[in-house]
Every structure is written in structure tokens, then in C-alpha cells.
DNA sequence: GCTTGACTTGAACCATTGTTTAAGTTGGAG
DNA sequence: CTCCAACTTAAACAATGGTTCAAGTCAAGC
């Protein structure tokens, strides 16, 4: 019961870095930001469970989608703390990005398809232009005049 | 000839801010970064030509597309310096983003469509996975092992 | 049991994209 | 000709996402 043979070995920070392709400095940073966590050995070194590898993968994929670490941390907080996450757990977390992603793909497609003619024709100065009208966007940007372009 | 009547009046930084919706502090920052430029009055105040409005619009739209200011600056450098840019000039500059944008839309669509099942099934640890394999991406990431995920 | 590579920390630093503040100057309306 | 809003600058500060460094500790192989 002390060390179950079929239980996969824990990973050091160097091993996790090597297998994930993420620099150890970034992994420690993620841990400070509470995106991942570790147990410590008696000598204060980190040991990660195997499923941390999947957590890190999720973090990097999410970052590629343009999602800030704070939002990723909040999504990861949905995972159970007492057991290894199941496929269903991961599916639920992944769903967090789906709608946002769909919206952003649509927005980018519109922008691409209208960029040249809108910039060329001068309608960038007109509120109704698809490029400059932020009403399509996900969330309101707060009060104040935003004639041309909403915040980046 | 000193002040041609049909020539539109120049804009102060406050006017450009008001009409573009971009804070004056950001406009001054863009000018320091050489994305826009102004002439100075005898009293050292900025005066912008009208077409700066379109330049600023282009900058903000490009930012929404996830393009860094340095790249926007390089694209804007393609515009003529001696005359007001024509529709064709703007079209050429806009083309800079098209291919990149198309690639990114495709990438994001793939990511969205495979996110849940890939994360759920565990294939995130496999090199061939669409989510983790950066070979689809635009540029090589430089040397060194990148097992799981390329840089964000 | 010693050596050496891997680990620990905090702090400083980096790039990007700005905002805020202080202290002073300009310019247009009346 | 005066007054005040709008302008000027440099420098400090902010948030995000890390990297680098110095100084010291741990652990695993020989």
C-alpha cells in the first residue's frame, strides 16, 4: 500500500518540462498562479502526478486559443480535487471555450472577408461597418464613447 | 495656396482621439512607436492629417486580429510617404494579413472541433494529435524539443 | 559518503501595450 | 490681452507571461 506497483511514477519538474516541452520556469510560474500543483518531498522538491501532464497540455492549447491564464485557472478549478479527472471531467472543462471560440472564428472570418474593401473604401470611418462596429462582439466594453474601434 | 479651402482641416490629438475612440495617450504611444506621425505647430503641438484617422482604424482592426504593433508598423511602412494613400495602397497593406488570418481561422476551427475529444481521450500526449502538433503552424519555432505544445 | 546534476527561492529583468501623474506651455474665445 | 481647456514631456506604474540569476540544497549513482 505504500507504493502500488501499477501506479505510475510521479514526475519531477525537469521530467514534466521534458515531457511537456514547457520550460521548468514556466511550470513553476503556473504553480505560483495556481494552474497546477504538486506535492513536496521531504527535501522540498516538487513531485507532480501524471495527470498534470494533461493539465499542462490543456493550458498550452488554451493559450494558443488566446485565453489568458486567469481564465484557464478558473476553468481548471472545475476539475475534481480528490481524484484523477475522467474523460467527462475534461469534456466539461473543454466546453468552456467552445462558444467563445465559435464566436471568435466568426468574427475573424468577417474581418478577413471585409478587411480589404472596407479599408479601401473608407467605410472605416462609419459606425455601421462590420470592422468597426463592436456590437457583434461578445461582451459590452463598458461606457464611454467608442466611435471607431473598441479596445484591442 | 497657403490654406486651400477644400483641404480638410488638420486634427489635434484630442480631436483624433474623439473621432477614433482611441485615448490620446495611446495615440502618443503609437507615434512614439512610429505607427503614426504628425507635424508640429510653432508651439510644438501635434497636428494630424485626416488620413491618420484611417491609419488608426487600421491599427485597431489589426490589433483585434491579434497582430502585434511591430508587425502593424512594418505593414504601414508600405504606404507612400509623399501622398495620401489610395484605395489600392490600402488594399495592398490589408493583403498582408489575409493569408495569416486564413491560416489562423483554420487552426482555430480544428482546435475547436477536436478540443473535447482530444483532451478527453488522452491523445494530447501523442505527437500526432492535431492539437499538440505544431507542424501545421505558420512558422517553425526554432530548435529544441517541443514534445507537447509549442510556445503560446 | 562524495560528487554532480537537478532542484529550491526570491528578486530582478524582459517585452508588449499602454495609463497616470506632475509640471509646465499653447492657443483660441471672449 | 487674459484665461482656461487642451496641449507638451518624462517618468513611473500596471498587467500579462514569463526568463534569468545568485546563492544555496537535495538526491542518486559510483
Automatic annotation (TrEMBL), chains A, B:
Keyword DNA-binding: yes
HTH merR-type domain residues: 10-78
Keywords, alphabetical: 2Fe-2S, DNA-binding, Iron, Iron-sulfur, Metal-binding
Stated name of the protein: MerR family transcriptional regulator
